[in-house]
Amino acid sequence: MRHGKKIGVVIPALNEEQAIGRVLGDIPSWVDEIIVVDNGSHDGTARAAEMAGARVVSESERGYGAACQTGIKALEEPDIIVFLDGDYSDRADEMASLTDPIATGTADFVVGSRIRGRRGPGALTPQQRFGNWLACRLIRCIWGTPCSDLGPFRAISADALRSLDVRDRAYGWTVEMQLKAAESGLRYLEVPVSYRARIGASKISGTLRGSVLAGITILTVIARSALRTQRSA
User: Any alpha helices (H) in 26-164, and if so which ranges?
Assistant: First the structure.
């Protein structure tokens, strides 16, 4: 419990055997429940997560959004849900800066901004920086939301997340959440978070194909949301 609120953590993971134990070891002791979603790993990710104390569930459909949705369903009625990656790039020990504004009633949705925080050498690739900059610029121009990052390390009240009905099953999960939050008028906050180079190769930014597919998906989600907003205006 944190400030009287039950905290649940969801960690999508794909072949993160070398990193997942370190991620789990840094999660604060006040977290009530940790779900690691094994998204089709071929290594010992699931076993390593279980040995580190997490509950592991499986999602055979490859996709960040698919894994996140499976993790949400596995949680046992938390008040606040935290998402972070399983590659040790996010600083789990900084989790309080995301959960506390929600627990104390000043925000509904908090995103950890890697752009505003400290970044280690090689933590963000050039294609990540450019794609993030472009997407956030579009969000600021179209919706007026003070967005600087689409980072994976984020917290949201369970009630708010249910109201958003985020459906993307792939790379568009994070941006769809932020766009729907802007459209619905949720109290949105960004806080600086530290970010370091991940352990192992990235499945997205580590390859040209992954980077292109992620970029196309994110821009498609933004374009569809912009058209929907324009039609309803």
Answer: 45-51, 64-74, 96-103, 126-143, 158-164
Please tell me the pTM assigned to this model: 0.94
Instruction: Please tell me the distance from the alpha carbon of residue 214 to that of residue 205, in angstroms, as a whole number.
Output: 8
Closest CA to 109 of 71, 138, 147: 147
User: Would you give per-residue pLDDT tens digits along the chain (233 residues)?
Assistant: 999 999 999 999 999 999 999 999 999 999 999 999 999 999 999 999 999 999 999 999 999 999 999 999 999 999 999 999 999 999 999 999 999 999 999 999 999 999 999 999 999 988 889 989 999 999 999 999 999 999 999 999 999 999 999 999 998 999 999 999 999 999 999 999 999 999 998 766 556 677 788 888 899 999 999 988 777 66
Sheet holding 7-13, edge to edge: 55-58, 33-38, 7-13, 80-83, 154-157, 109-113, 188-192
Two tokens, residue 66: 């698919």
- Tally of CB atoms within 10 A around 125: 15
Of the candidates 148, 174, 171, 170, the one whose C-alpha atom is nearest the C-alpha of residue 161 is 174
The structure tokens listed for 170 are 């792939």
What does the angle CA 101 – CA 52 – CA 157 come to, to the nearest 5 degrees?
Answer: 20
- Judge whether 108 and 102 are in contact, CB under 8 Å: yes
- Neighbouring C-beta atoms of residue 173, cutoff 10 Å: 25
CB-based burial of residue 231 (10 Å sphere; 0-12 exposed, 13-18 middle, 19+ buried)? exposed
Q: Could you tell me if residue 80 is left (phi over 0), alpha (psi between -120 and 50 degrees) or otherwise beta?
A: beta
